[in-house]
């Protein structure tokens, strides 16, 4: 038991529940510290259990000190039924698999199950000091790897080679793995915000969009730079400058207490005034932590309000089919009196061979 499980109990109080089953693995990780790939947390009025299988006995006891670890053999649902107080209602996460839900409903009875949406996720929105350190550590690996990559990029290299090189360099810098599949969109491929990796080879006048992150001890980073192999031509420069100005406009708006939608609007306005409004086809940003995409959402339809401890991306982009695209993605931490750009050491404009 810890502060986080107390936080979960407080959330359950609000909806009149005493029991909850947490199955989303990132939420299990958040509550307990356990980093295995299979586990669940069961809260009852007088117990908080970390449930996992025999493969993780040693790891669970080591990573989740203070938690009662229940190693189940056979069916987890049968163990749950034995532990839940007779007739008690139990919250479950709407993100659980449907076949898991059916097993629960069959054993416990559908009427005892209460769907809960975003209960633990709500607790995860504001990061504590330890989480901020973990995210900075992940980002540090990514940026170190990227700096090493820049020494290697040259015309003739393929997108696939570039991504493999970056993943390798991030690993050498201490990353456990990439936080997500590294995105490399070169030349016209960069018009796709999430370009699938290809064997296309870099050409001298290419823009190369590189979206990368590192995973370290469960926490992730997420940043993008659009690199120019030689020097920008006029339109490339205009598009890049517009995106950079949109980042600046967002930064001018960011402060605790500000609505996320207002930050999105500030960046979007800059892109629209430059004539590329229709080409900025996604939200401005998203929270990053145990998952690459989590709350808050920085978009025109978001109801989130910025709070100290939130970590999220600011990533405006302009995408022109047949021509290419530019995205710049920064990571920001809201502080009590402003914000910190966690990815500040990474230059926004990178020309490799002037
Ligand atoms: Zn990204
Ligand atoms: Zn992102």
Concise structural overview:
This protein has 354 residues and is an alpha+beta fold. The chain is 34% helix and 23% strand.
General description of the model:
- The chain is of the alpha+beta class.
- It has two domains: 3-124, Creatine Amidinohydrolase, Chain A, domain 1; 129-351, Creatinase/methionine aminopeptidase superfamily (Creatine Amidinohydrolase, Alpha-Beta Complex).
- Helices cover 34% and strands 23% of the residues.
- The strands form six sheets. A six-stranded mixed sheet has the order 4-3-2-1-5-6, sandwiched between helices. It has a four-stranded mixed sheet with strand order 8-9-12-20, with helices on one face.
- α7 (129-150) crosses α8 and α9 packs antiparallel against α10 (260-273).
- 41% of the residues are buried.
- Bound molecules: zinc ion (2 copies).
- One zinc ion (ZN) binds at residues 222, 286, 313, 315, 329.
Rough outline: elongated
Please identify the top-level CATH class of the largest domain. Alpha Beta
| Percent of sequence in beta strands | 15-25%
Class computed from helices, strands and strand pairing: alpha+beta
List how many beta strands DSSP finds.
20
The domain tally reads: 2
Question: Helix segment count?
Answer: 10
CATH superfamily of the largest domain: Creatinase/methionine aminopeptidase superfamily
Main beta-sheet strand count, sense and barrel state: 6 strands, mixed
Mean pLDDT across the residues is 96
Low-confidence stretches: none
Q: From N to C, what is the helix and strand string?
A: HEHEEHEHEHEHHHEEEEEEHHEEEEEEEE
Share of helical residues: 25-40%
Small molecules bound in the structure, each named once: zinc ion
